[in-house]
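Good morning,

Both structures are done.
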Amino acid sequence: MPWLELSLTLPADRQPECEDALEELGALSVTLQDADAETPDERAIFEPGVDQTPLWSRVVLTALFEDDADRAFIATELCRVLPELQPAQLDFRAVADQDWERAWMDQFKPMRFGRRLWIVPWNDETFAEPDAVVVRLDPGLAFGTGTHPTTALCLEWLDGLDLDGRSVTDYGCGSGVLAIAALKLGAARALGVDNDPQALTATRDNAERNGVGDRLDVHLPEDAPDAPADVFVANILAGPLSELAERFAALVKPGAPFALSGILDGQQHELLDCYAPWFEDLRTQQREDWIRIDGRRRA
């Protein structure tokens, strides 16, 4: 069935009242976007801290209603709650229904990383590539499927390593794609660490789906074991990467390879200085606006 979509732009300090009003009026969902996206004033917001909800200075609120919702009543009530609004600022449009999972599946095709590693939708039964190492993932897990440059940089790095019989730590595991890829590439065991319990659940599910669940352990950071790994990869953000440098050094065996990503171009210089006391042979690789740092733990 079709839906009714309403979009409006307003200052961030008016967002809570507007969102509450939309929900009272029967909105099925409300999403927020940067009103200055794709302009020089665009500002990136990544993973916020606990109990933090950072917003842009101006936001676009988009609400979805049942198709038969009363447009005039919604407009009247919103203008009553937010007197500064003008009816012309309210953009209503009909949205056709579709199979959203199918639409995403149509975009999510098998992707190759390095020489032999492939990420494939879990229910794609047509994929056939000789000598491919295949990781199958739920296409609903957008960030952890390899479509993001930081994930792609780490997958390519893993494909270039000799992982046979090694232990691997994936810090900030998300969907578990890096740990699972390492296991499929020959690692003996992997450890996934994430501060989001839902990420740990997703990692477990994906590991089971790929037949490596018995070789993958997952933990919250405070519960993770301290044993150093043969290979270490952390795909998080530059701030936590800087704060955790000494901690990461303790989690990597002497001489072992490591990689960091989640780093925007321009942030790598400070991180290179930060990691130099514990790591050597440091180098960078760039994809779009994102950077990977890799090297080895000093002996």
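Second structure follows.
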Amino acid sequence: MSSAASQPNVLIVEDEPSQREVLAYNLESEGYGVSRAVNGEEALMLVKESAPDLIVLDWMLPNVSGIEVCRQLKTKAETRNVPIIMLSARSEEVDRVRGLETGADDYVIKPYSVVELMARVRSQLRRTRPATVGQVLEFDGITLDSESHKVFRDGNSLKLGPTEFRLLSTFMEKPGRVWSREQLLDRVWGRDIYVDTRTVDVHIGRLRKALCQFGGDDPVRTVRGAGYALG
């Protein structure tokens, strides 16, 4: 399986085709998975099907506005933590304040620099998906370096397969969070690949074996009827 499956997925919500494609091209060039929506209704439907890791959202959309999309997503528990970067030609301070108060995590005025926007995307993902932007993650004696693809536990170098590495990256980005098998399939294998949920159990078993190859307690917790968590 490609390691790209664990790369962040960005949803672009933009009704202007040329701007939408420029954004998609630059995001894909950075290695992100990209989904597209041309209006607010489609955006809400796509997010309901599978929440992205970040949303680039135009304010001026037909029918359901970007502000309304943002408001709806930020009031739901399952989507309120998805970062939203609002794009708008409205440059007045009152509009910027309104966008941020509605829940947008960042506000970018059109016309914008694509280079600056990509930097803002990385900044938001550094907060929510740190392993994907090269940060070293640490938890309870376990160190994961996503750039060098190395894992250590209490100073010992661990040998992990690529799938186990992506599983551990997912767990270490949010220690304590319970991930269902379906969520792990989406994050680690990718949304477009059919894999039986029992495959998750097999790779969790391999990850546990790898983490304990030099001794120590098993840090992966099974939550009956819910899934798995680290710590």
